[in-house]
Structure formats: structure tokens, C-alpha cells
TrEMBL record:
It is an enzyme of class 2 (transferase). GO terms for cellular component: plasma membrane. SUPFAM superfamilies: ATPase domain of HSP90 chaperone/DNA topoisomerase II/histidine kinase, Homodimeric domain of signal transducing histidine kinase. Its EC number is 2.7.13.3. Keywords: Kinase, Membrane, Phosphoprotein, Transferase, Two-component regulatory system. It comes from freshwater metagenome. This is histidine kinase. InterPro entries: BphY/WalK/GraS-like, HATPase_C_sf, HATPase_dom, His_kinase_dom, HisK_dim/P_dom, HisK_dim/P_sf, Sig_transdc_His_kin-like_C. It catalyses: ATP + protein L-histidine = ADP + protein N-phospho-L-histidine. Transmembrane segments: none annotated. GO terms for molecular function: phosphoprotein phosphatase activity; phosphorelay sensor kinase activity. Residues 134-349 form the Histidine kinase domain.
């Protein structure tokens, strides 16, 4: 019986070794950055990519935070994930940010940790945002010059044909200016976290200001903006960004509605969530377009957008603002009937006179 147990032990250990070897070969072949820990969390294997990322330096772990995740996975029996920073070199303060996923292997007491380099992705994203922001700011100067020149031509000339072309130039300049400003706004939204320095924002006041900003456009089309009942609640966030989001939705509803129709702005409270709905009587949006309308530069009707001066960024900006404030946006639409865009935001906790929530 003892011999039988010993044979089973040898077979089991052989199977474990084979399985671990197969995992190691797979990780090496795929170029995955990984470290395998054996019993008592001792490093048994590390892939070449793990060395390249700096997880392993001189044959040792370069992060105590990683070991804490491994111990927690072993203690709970559950996969763990997190982020760690490893030094770029033996001297200096530079670090590389890595995403870590830790899981238990079928082998008894064996754990694997895999790594993804977040620093490079963040660096590329930062370079892209900086480029977009810088080029957008640089474009504002020539746009302003073109606007001034077109206005000067209009004033100086009495030729109807010249004034016609000057008016067309001014229209395109205004459209280009709006596009550049929206690119700048979107770039800022991607960089900012409004909840870090958040204030309580009176929702009714923000909605009313957005409506006021759209009144002139609505009046030129003889479109009535109807305001539903007030809700008298506050949300936490950036007042300017929220007004921008509400303004974009209302302006969008006006642009895609026939003359002499109505745009309704309703607010309602559902438990600890406030809903802001913008309802139009416009052309509606097909099901296939609804899946893409929040993408940058996507326009349901490019020809109509050229007439109204739409840039294709308005709804993308709305989605970013709402997401940054911990909310969500949805759309209901039917062709020939109209559309309803609904923003849902968490209501701010009430604060008493002593400042306690």
C-alpha cells in the first residue's frame, strides 16, 4: 500500500511538472509578461517579457505590491487584479505603471501573475491629446483672421456677388470655429475629472441656463422650447460641463426638428437618480444609426449637418460629460416621430449646516 501511494505521488508530481512546463512554453511563445509562484510564494519561473518590463530585476521581484496580491489570491482562492509601479532602473525616480492579474493554477500551491504595460498606452494617449489640443489652439488665430477679412470685404464692397461670397466665407469660418472649439472642449473633457474638485450644482438652474442659450436659435426656426416641472435637486460635478451637455442636446433637438414644432425638456427624480429628457418632434433616428450616434464625427444626416453647421462632436461631448459625472445617457427614437435623449445623474447627498452628510 505504501508503494502504491508513493507511485501515485510520483505520477502526480510528474503531471504537475509537465503542466507547469507547458504553461511556461506557452507564455514564452506568446511573449506574455508573467511570473509563476510556487509554494510559499517563491518565484519558480518568469518570462523574458517580465524582465523587459522590470518586474524581475537581478532575478528578484522588483515590487512588494505584487507579492501582496499573490498572497491575497492564495489566501482567498480568488483571482486578483490591480496596478503596480516598478522602477525603470536601479537609480532615478522613473517608474513604469503595470496592470496585474493574479490567478491560481490547477497545480497545488502555484500562482501565476500576468502584466500589461499601462505607461506606454498612457504616454501615447497623452501625446495624442496634447497634439489635438495644440493644433486646435493654433488654428484659432488664422480662423480669426479669416473672419475679420470676410467682414471687411462685406463692409467695403457694394457688389452683391462679392457680398454673397463673403457671406459664404463667414458661414464656413463660423462652422470651422465651432469645430475647433468642440475639439478643444472634448480634449479637455478627456483630461479632466470633474469629481475631484466637484461642487454641488443646482440642476434646475443649469437646465434653465442651457435653454436660455438655445432660445435665439429656436426663435429663428419658430420652435417652442417647453420646460417641464422643476425637481429642486442638486448633482455633484462641474457646472460649466453640465450646462454644455444640456445645451448640446437641446441644440441638437432644434437642428433636427422641422420649423414650427416643439422641443420639450423634462426633469424627473427616480429614487436617488435625476433624469433630464430632451424630446423633439424631428425626423427620428434609425436603429442602425442609434448604435453609432455617440461616436466622434458621426452624423446621421451629413447633408443636414452641413446646413445646420453640425460638427458631429456634440453628442460625443455629451456622453463624455455624463460619463465623467458618474451618469449615463440613452436614446429612444422612431423615424418620422422624433427622438428622446435621456441623461441620468446621481443626486448629490444632502449636507446639513455643520457640513455633515
Amino acid at each position: 500500500m505504501v508503494k502504491s501511494l508513493l507511485r501515485k505521488k510520483v505520477v502526480a508530481e510528474s503531471s504537475v511538472g509537465t503542466a507547469t512546463q507547458e504553461v511556461q512554453e506557452m507564455l514564452s511563445t506568446l511573449g506574455i509578461a508573467a511570473v509563476i509562484f510556487g509554494p510559499v510564494n517563491r518565484v519558480e519561473y518568469f518570462s523574458p517579457s517580465a524582465v523587459v518590463l522590470g518586474v524581475i530585476r537581478n532575478g528578484k521581484l522588483a515590487s512588494d505590491s505584487l507579492l501582496a496580491l499573490v498572497r491575497k489570491a492564495g489566501r482567498t482562492g480568488l483571482p486578483q487584479e490591480g496596478q503596480i509601479e516598478v522602477p525603470l532602473g536601479p537609480i532615478g525616480e522613473g517608474t513604469r505603471k503595470l496592470s496585474v492579474q493574479v490567478a491560481l493554477l490547477p497545480t497545488q500551491g502555484t500562482t501565476i501573475a500576468t502584466f500589461t504595460d499601462e505607461s506606454e498606452a498612457e504616454r501615447i494617449d497623452a501625446v495624442r491629446r496634447d497634439f489635438v489640443a495644440n493644433i486646435s489652439h493654433e488654428l484659432k488665430t488664422p480662423i480669426s483672421a479669416l473672419r475679420t477679412l470676410s467682414e471687411a470685404v462685406t463692409v467695403a464692397s457694394e457688389d452683391p456677388q462679392v457680398n454673397k461670397f463673403s457671406a459664404m466665407m463667414q458661414s464656413q469660418v463660423e462652422r470651422l470655429s465651432a469645430l475647433v472649439q468642440e475639439i478643444i472642449d472634448l480634449s479637455r473633457l478627456q483630461d479632466a475629472d470633474p469629481l475631484l474638485d466637484a461642487l454641488q450644482v443646482d440642476l434646475d438652474e443649469a437646465v434653465n441656463e442651457a435653454i436660455d442659450q438655445c432660445q435665439v436659435l429656436a426663435q429663428t426656426r419658430e420652435i417652442e422650447i417647453v420646460r417641464g416641472p422643476a425637481v429642486e435637486v442638486s448633482v455633484v460635478g462641474d457646472r460649466t460641463h453640465l450646462i454644455m451637455a444640456f445645451h448640446n442636446l437641446i441644440e441638437n433637438a432644434i437642428n433636427y426638428s422641422p420649423d414650427h414644432t416643439r422641443v420639450t425638456v423634462n426633469t424627473a427624480v427616480d429614487k436617488q437618480i435625476v433624469e433630464i429628457s430632451v424630446i423633439d418632434q424631428g425626423v427620428g433616428i434609425s436603429d442602425s444609426d442609434q448604435e453609432r450616434i455617440f461616436e466622434r464625427f458621426y452624423r446621421v444626416d451629413p447633408a443636414r449637418s452641413r446646413i445646420t453647421g453640425g460638427t458631429g462632436l456634440g453628442l460625443s461631448i455629451v456622453k463624455h460629460v455624463v460619463g465623467n459625472h458618474g451618469g449615463e445617457i440613452s436614446v429612444w427614437s422612431s423615424s418620422g416621430v422624433g427622438s428622446t435623449f435621456t441623461i441620468r445623474l446621481p443626486i448629490a447627498d444632502e449636507i446639513n449646516d455643520e457640513g455633515e452628510q
